[in-house]
Amino acid sequence: MDARQIDQAEELLLKARLDHQRIAALPNACRPKDEAEAYLIQDRSVDQMLAHYGGDITGYKIGCTSVMAQKLLGSSSSVVGTLMSAFARTGPAEISADDGFMHMIKAEIGFHLGQDLPTAGQPYEAATVRPALATVFDAIEVADSRYQEWAAIGPAQLIADNSSDGFWVYGEKFGDMDSLDPADHPVRVRRNGAWAERGRSAKVLDYPLNVVAWLANHLVARGTCLKTGELLTTGTMIAISPAEKGDIVESDY
User: From 3.90.1150.10, 3.90.850.10, 3.30.420.40, 3.40.50.720, which CATH number describes the 56-252 domain?
Assistant: First the structure.
């Protein structure tokens, strides 16, 4: 895939976002054949979104971290998207129903990096990334997609579309990591005052720190790394479903 094809794909995805007009799929001429090409499109898309919306990169979102999500999207591995300040909100937050196409709710555990995770002599594991985590926090991702049939489009095109990014709301950071074991932490989601979805952190690659390790290794393989100050969110602990206009959604950890 050459630079012209990357630009063509990025322009179509940005136009769909700005014009509020979904596309069926990227044309064959600029459709990524694999995840490597998809991330090249994503990188270019993020550059253009930063130029249009302003702000900066704040970290990463990791998706397809549960068996349920991988089956739904036809993926055999996790995927990464870029978090940008223009779409991040500190809870409680109000998001317009007119922004985006759908509002798929994901309750997630997030982390704030206290130190870099650069190239290492061996792959990162949960135990070796834990010292780099400064704080943990609760988060709700409000996922979106520029594709008409987002669940059937395939992982490469999802990645190109910044892994179905929408908005991201995060709560207060908790710094006493030694007193917290996120291995099987519960979450409940309340909609309009009534309890709805329930989940546990063990759904995300069995342990949220496994997700951090996966991301650290993924970025090293791409020639970069997790850096001090970045935020990351580790995937949905609940079955994803849309919120409707007027809904009040709360996550309780």
Answer: 3.90.850.10
Confidence (pLDDT) at 183: 87
Q: How far is CA 77 from CA 137, 146, 156, 198, 205, in A?
A: 24, 21, 11, 24, 10
pTM of the model: 0.95
Retrieve residue 92's tokens: 């409680």
Q: Which two tokens stand for residue 109?
A: 């555990």
Where do the structural domains in the chain lie, given as residue ranges? 56-252
Burial of 43 per CB tally in 10 Å (0-12, 13-18, 19+): middle
Q: Which residues of 101-137 are buried (b: 16+ CB within 10 A; e: fewer)?
A: bebbbbbbbbbbbeeebeeeeeebebebbeebbebbb
Residue 72 CB burial class (10 angstroms; 0-12, 13-18, ≥19): middle
Summarize pLDDT for 112-125 with one digit per residue, the tens.
Answer: 999 999 987 899 99
